[in-house]
Amino acid sequence: MLWKFPEVSLAPEVIWNPGGIFPITNTLLCTWITILALVAFFYFGTRNASLIPSGFQNFVEWIVEFLVNLVNGVVGSRKDKAARFFPWVASFFIFILCANLMDVLPGIDTIGSLKGEEIAHVGGNCAPVLGFLPSCQPLSLGPIHFLFGNISNLIIPWFRPPTTDLNLTVAMALLSVGATQFFGFYHLGAKEHLSKYFNFRALRKGPMGLIDVVVGLLEIISEAARIISFSFRLFGNIFAGSLVLAAFAFILPFVAAIIFIPFEIFVAVMQALIFALLTLVFMEIGTTSHEAHEEHLVEEEQKVLQGEKAAA
Amino acid sequence: MTLILAASPLEGLGINTFAFLSQLVSFIIVLILLRKWALPTVQRMLDRRAAIIREGIENAERAREELKNATARAEQLLAEARREAQEVIANAQRAAEREARRIEEEALARARQIEQQQIEHIRQEAARARADLGRLVVNLSIAAASKVISKSVDSSDNRRLVEEFVNASQATKGQ
């Protein structure tokens, strides 16, 4: 066997633990690399910015303008809301996109430190590869080793896409839902916002009001479920993409990458967009009062009735 | 293919407090960086450009409006100038016609005056010619009579007689 399928680990691996108190995982390292990449991205994109943009400045402004238009398109005429939501939506999109795109970079999941004990254990099952390369010994070039055969997957990767770590996706989901709640309280006031979940006033309408109370309580579950859906959707897609790349690199080396790397770039963009767009939509819904929503529905009904009358 | 899973579900998923907090803090740093520095920098540039473009469009709109007004004013001035020119031409034509008539009338008057003068002159010439002719007739008559009577006649007496005769003839003829 030329190489083995890589080991699949849901948990990120600790690559360095300075002092035994600060375990740095490969995903955390890549999160920091992503932060540095973003700083470089914006630094070079805004350095020597001219009124007539060109090259990289144009690209950076295109992304920011796209996000501004996205937020304005959803929020509408409420400029104050758009200004508050925009940094969150833009941060989620840009950071997640940058983190997801790490998946297709060479060296991700493939450069790392050797699992010494396991290599020693596998050593007994040596088999020749292509007739001359021993599969149980790394091909050593000084401090650099190339792994083949049975030991090819015995590696702790130093670099792993940050969004394949549930710690990050859950943290972002919590921030998204937390910010949505904050904006709900800020724009509607505590009483109005809490009445969405504890709608006991509906009981005045009679027994049918009980349904509204239950729906309100279900909203709490829905909010909690958002954290899970946000975090697992992003994690699942990028982790699966990472596995697909690894699997096809194992099944059909070099050739499969031509098909799957563009596909993974598409998934990376879509997942970043979905996370940012859902955050934006939930923020917009969370800051719209029941009365305004009902008034809007009444207006819509009246419009429909007027249309029917006109047609008649 | 080996799937590594741990005993506890959360541990199996790789979720632990320290990693979670590390990632949370890291993302909050991203949020602060983008919110305080990166996004405002780009947005300022976008807003500045939008303001300049808006100003440019407004200026162009204003310039177009001014051009439209100027064109209308120029057309109005042109129409006025054309009208004034027409008036000037008409006045000039009228003046020219008046002048022509005056010149014509003067010319006619002068012509009539010259004509009268010429007629008078002709009349005088005719009178003189007639007088000369009368004298010539007298002379010829005397000469003829002398030959007829073969006798010299006193010239001065006869001349006076003939002249009286001729004058009387002319007077009779004139009546």
In words, what does this structure look like?
Chain B: Belongs to the ATPase B chain family. Chain B: Residues 50-132 form a coiled coil. Chain B: It holds the Pfam family ATP-synt_B. Chain B: It is a single-pass membrane protein. The complex is a heterodimer of chains A (312) and B (175). Chain A has 312 residues and is mainly α. Chain A is built from nine helices and nine strands. Chain A has helices at residues 26-46, 55-75, 79-101, 116-122, 166-188, 190-194, 209-251, 255-286, 290-311, and strands spanning 8-9, 14-16, 24-25, 112-114, 128-129, 133-134, 139-141, 144-146, 155-157. In chain A, the strands form four sheets. A two-stranded antiparallel ribbon of chain A has the order 2-3. Chain A has a two-stranded antiparallel ribbon with strand order 4-9. Chain A has a two-stranded antiparallel ribbon with strand order 5-6. In chain A, a hairpin with a 3-residue loop joins strand 5 and strand 6. Chain B has one domain (16-174). Chain B has helices at residues 9-12, 17-149, 155-174, and one strand at residues 3-4. Helices cover 90% and strands 1% of the residues of chain B. Chain B has three helices and one strand, in the order βααα. At the A-B interface, strand 1, helix 1, helix 2, helix 3 and helix 5 of A face strand 1 and helix 2 of B. Strand 1 of chain A pairs parallel with strand 1 of chain B.
